[in-house]
């Protein structure tokens, strides 16, 4: 029996499962999914879990059920490409014929002293739970620092403001303005929301050190009661340990078929893959659609297309609490209630399509 092994149950591999099961898998092929949890976690909503405005149940859905699918729960410690084997922390070793690496990312601390030790994270559902316990356990008037004003930092800071009106929130942004790579209208809308809701946006910041109860921004010391780090990502350690070719951000270089250039049986999907676009759930799903087409062609011994179609993304949606939002779609800016309803609708549709 041929084994297709999927590492990680994120957006990319979830899409692969839904496209191959139940009727698009050759009879001589089985799928083994390895993930630390028995369910698919919607990482784009971890900010709400950490802020306490969404329950654990709301940010996960079940994996599909099939007698062609085996789900193995465990922590992946090593990927042995030469042996076509994946090693788990319990000593189990799983072999594969085809492998899709979709293990996602973890925080990148940019060598800032104390950042890995004294900050909280929203990169996994487990870490988001820990962040929730800390943030919701803070006393009134406590100061929370959110380092990094990308989409995750913006959504966390705004959702936390709605959850805890009594907290003082500081959002640290390295740029002179929020979302500087997008139209100024979008930046101004987000900044105005933060101003109106008493979230202090610290522009042109440079966090040089983190200590318990203290942040260092340039030469300034800022007392804090908790810090959440959203200032950069990198592939998880088992992927970094492969020592493969990578781009400047550490993401693994792949060919147009999303395979390792040196191994056509290994695919990389999602945050680990080096692509010209920023990592996102949408990008992982579009990659997965192409990987499924490549796998089916390979299994049928068909020639692969000379050139794969270019991935086209629709844009992005962001929330500012439960009532306001912002979007950048087809080079158009949408802000306010409509943008928030659009994001809620996309989330509802995702849950519906995924059972």
UniProtKB/TrEMBL annotation:
Coiled coil: none
Gene3D superfamilies recorded: 3.50.50.100
UniProt record, GO biological process: aerobic electron transport chain
Similarity comment: Belongs to the NADH dehydrogenase family.
Protein name: NADH dehydrogenase
Keyword set includes Phosphoprotein: no
The enzyme's E.C. designation: 1.6.99.3
Enzyme class: oxidoreductase
Cofactor: FAD
Cited PANTHER family: 64 KDA MITOCHONDRIAL NADH DEHYDROGENASE (EUROFUNG) (PTHR42913:SF3), APOPTOSIS-INDUCING FACTOR 1 (PTHR42913)
InterPro entries in the cross-refs: FAD/NAD-bd_sf (IPR036188), FAD/NAD-binding_dom (IPR023753), NADH-Q_oxidoreductase (IPR051169)
Superkingdom of the organism of origin: Bacteria
Domain (FAD/NAD(P)-binding) ranges: 3-285
GO molecular function, a single term: NAD(P)H dehydrogenase (quinone) activity
UniProt entry tagged with the keyword Glycoprotein: no
Organism: Planococcus koreensis
Signal peptide: none
Keywords of this entry: FAD, Flavoprotein, Oxidoreductase
